[in-house]
Design goal:
By secondary structure, this protein is an alpha/beta fold. The protein contains nine helices and seven strands; from the N terminus they run αααβαβαββαβαβααβ. It has a seven-stranded mixed beta sheet with strand order 3-2-1-4-5-7-6, with helices on both faces. Helix 3 (55-66) packs across helix 4. It is globular and about 45 Å long. The structure holds S-adenosylmethionine. Residues 13, 17, 50-52, 84-86, 89-90, 105-108, 111, 134-136, 151-153, 156-157, 195 line the site of S-adenosylmethionine (SAM).
């Protein structure tokens, strides 16, 4: 069986991620963690709004690797598109710590709703906007962004050719494409469940060398390529206000964590930080 599957509909993807009453659940979790909802800062959200392995430290790592503090934009602030922006955590970090103006696009309506509420609560609504949309059909003009950013989003997407062509189209020439992406390791097929799929039918990972070649063929020049799999290691359950617990629930998360540890230890799953320039 191939390591990446063939068919997954948009509806299946949304059904996997979507949750009801998510705004209320997230706000209650923040209060239970001792946060004052009337005095929230971006840093107060760090444990709750970064929905990927490695949490906020790896978002910062990728931003540093991409040189976001050094990149220039004709508009003054870097215009960033975060594809699969989730609860908006990475976008708020890029706005608050690197002065970026960020647009996120995400397929899952309840995540976009949470993202908007949290962005408003920390007062970043003038710099960060959140849209519902599909990564495979980005609703933006050519060359619209200085940076295309994505973390842990492509795993559900089989058609990586179309995905990358879309990133290339909306990025200006000389712009930066920065990503964190789980990929298929050499250790064999994944153990399931993983965060993004219950089985192989909705998991679409390709090996790192295939991905690097594909990205290059799409019209990007590589600046850096780092295996950050070790940064994904976990020990024990995250705090109750972590997105993994809020969204997956404890029982399911235990299964995901057990499979994840085996996938990492057996080299079945690798996570890559890549930074490329649009030629
Ligand atoms: C693990 S979460 C990562 C969220 C965010 N990037 C972060 O790191 O905090 C995966 C996200 O990908 C989104 N997603 C999956 N397929 C998508 C697609 N085709 N278009 C847009 N978003 C998608 C999901 O809705 C979910 O928010």
């Amino acid at each position: 069986m191939p390591q990446y599957g063939l068919v997954m509909t948009r509806e299946t993807a949304v059904a996997h991620w979507e949750r009801t009453d998510l705004v209320q659940t997230v706000l209650e979790a923040l209060v239970a963690a001792g946060k004052d909802l009337d005095r929230l800062g971006v840093d107060d959200l760090a444990a709750t709004d970064q929905f990927h392995g490695g949490g906020r430290p790896v978002t910062i790592r990728l931003a540093e690797r991409a040189g976001l503090d050094r990149l220039e934009s004709s508009a003054g602030s870097l215009k960033v598109l975060d594809v699969g922006g989730g609860l908006g955590g990475p976008a708020r970090v890029l706005a608050a710590h690197y002065g970026c103006v960020v647009t996120t696009v995400d397929l899952t309506p309840s995540y976009v709703e949470v993202a908007r509420v949290l962005t408003e609560k920390v007062g970043l609504q003038d710099r960060v906007q959140h849209l519902i949309g599909n990564a495979l059909d980005l609703p933006f003009a050519e060359d619209a962004f200085d940076v295309v950013w994505t973390q842990n989003t492509g795993m559900n997407i089989a058609d990586k050719e179309t995905l990358l062509q879309g990133f290339h189209r909306v990025l200006r020439p000389g712009g930066t494409f920065a990503f964190q992406e789980p990929m298929a390791g050499e250790g064999g097929p994944l153990h399931f469940p993983v965060m993004w799929a219950d089985d192989i039918s909705s998991s679409f990972l390709r090996p790192p060398n295939e991905m690097r070649d594909l990205i290059t063929r799409t019209g990007f020049r590589m600046r850096s390529w780092d295996d950050v799999s070790e940064n994904m290691a976990t020990s024990g359950m995250p705090p109750p206000h972590a997105p993994q617990r809020i969204i997956m629930g404890d029982d399911r998360l235990r299964l995901i964590a057990a499979a994840g540890q085996k996938n990492l230890a057996e080299g079945r799953l690798v996570t890559i930080h890549g930074v490329f320039t649009k030629i």
